[in-house]
Amino acid sequence: MVSGTHGPEGYCGAAGQLAFLQARFHEGLPSSAAVLCIYALNCYGFAWDRRVNAEGCDLNRNFIDFSQRTRESGL
Questions:
Q1: Dihedral of the CA atoms 7, 9, 11, 14 (nearest 10)?
Q2: Which residues neighbour 51 within 8 Å (Cβ) at sequence distance 6 or greater?
Q3: Taking CA atoms, which of 34, 41, 42, 64 is between 20 and 30 Å from 53?
Q4: Which residues, at least 6 apart from 68, have a Cβ–Cβ distance to it below 8 Å?
């Protein structure tokens, strides 16, 4: 579970993660499953209530699709 990708939504996302853990929902998962909680993926955006990170990158929209050809890879 990830919260804080866009910064400001990290508050309700973190509350959702806490509710999940407090309700002990993870205990109902099969032993082969695991849950990783990432509290604030975009720490800068969370701290400053910004959608972008410190470099001005929107982590949800600015990404490289490595399955596609890129100029850098020459593939």
A1: -100
A2: 6, 7, 8, 45, 58
A3: 34
A4: none
